[in-house]
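User: Let's play a game. I give you a shape written as tokens, and you guess the letters that built it. Ready? Here's round one.
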């Protein structure tokens, strides 16, 4: 899968512990990442916040 530029920024924040699952979910709502990208980053099924 090809990722947008914001995917790597969000993944980096999550991996470093700067963002939690809720913030990553908010990135989906803002259109920064897709649901599939959320699930790849967090490792869980997306549930709308």
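Assistant: Ready! My guess for every position:
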């Amino acid at each position: 899968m090809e990722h947008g530029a914001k995917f790597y920024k969000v993944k980096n924040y999550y991996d470093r512990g700067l963002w939690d699952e809720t913030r990553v979910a908010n990135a989906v709502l803002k259109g920064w990442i897709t649901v599939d990208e959320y699930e790849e980053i967090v490792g869980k099924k997306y549930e709308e916040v």
